[in-house]
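Contributing new complexes? Match this layout with magnesium ion.
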Amino acid sequence: MSGGTELALEGLSRRYGSTVAVARMDLAVAPGELVALLGPSGCGKTTTLRMVAGFVEPSGGRILLRGRDITSMPAHKRDTGMVFQSYALFPHLSVAENIAFGLHRRGVPKAEVAHRVARMVALLKLDGLEARLPRQLSGGQQQRVAVGRALVINPAVVLLDEPFSNLDALLREGTRIELRRLQTELGLTTLFVTHDQAEAMAISDRIAVMNQGRLEQLGTPREIYDRPATRFVAGFIGRANLFDAKPGAAGGLISEDGIPLEAAGAATYVLRPERIVLDDAPAEGPNAAAGSIEVLSFLGTGVQAVLRLSGGRALLVEGPASLADRFRPGAAATARWTAADLTAIPAP
Ligand SMILES: Nc1ncnc2c1ncn2[C@@H]1O[C@H](COP(=O)(O)OP(=O)(O)OP(=O)(O)O)[C@@H](O)[C@H]1O
Ligand SMILES: [Mg+2]
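Output block (do not edit by hand):
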């Protein structure tokens, strides 16, 4: 990644009647950077991507590619490679021909086309399927062909709309690592749409978290996880226990459900499940809460527990697999954390 901006969205908006699909979106993507657009269904991810590709006309704002205003440039003149959410392949062309399509159109010599197609086929694990037609492929295979078709032309900007939604978990993880490797190697500037936070964390340089058409937070996966800017981001990225800390009657701070807190001041705080430690001693003093274990789930890498507090709150806790040896569902347990584990969410 070098400095500067490859792709810039400036106050980009799109309305459909009274629906605001995208609201004044500002985003600067650096050359070779992969930015994920992450958010729940209907938050405006696809609309944003389609405006960049030139398939949806913005209601306001500008799109700049390498400093050049492309807002009203026709789609086919923009140097973008897009994978649609419904990976539209050419039904009458084989896998190899689908991938080669953009290269032929650009007049790339035959030998080089063959070489570049073969590379995509290997990379996307489509070996042996080169001669098949789309209808002879599984949904996941079709998606990988669509990714190959977009990447093979080395576009200035790659636009991927949930490109792996039809892959099973294992293939999905493998393919996204391959995509990330290739994207980094070729230095492809990429916008990657997903509603899967784990996927966004795994492959992005930065994540743009969207909610109801607005950009809620832009930052590295680490920044977004460690310092969420809003309650929405805290709850959407990873699991979060939230406390609204106010001054208590006996001095100090107290949560809305009566848990004494030692923290920097009155604010809303995020407490990540993996920061909580469980033991069976009584809860005394701040930053401790007693309850009973309601659910214990073994996740392979560890254990996730729901601790039902006497005030009614379900506290989410994550810890080592050994937790399952020490506690059983129904057992009493005390959750503890420190002031450093509480991250304040800036007031809106
Ligand atoms: N052609 C259209 N006409 C009217 N409303 C639309 C149109 N396209 C999108 N919308 C609305 O704009 C909003 C954003 O849609 P968009 O497709 O961008 O969401 P998304 O984030 O991609 O969601 P998903 O994760 O479900 O794909 C939604 O409320 C949607 O109903
Ligand atoms: Mg979409």
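Reviewers usually confirm one structural detail per submission. For this one: The two ends are 33 Å apart (CA to CA).
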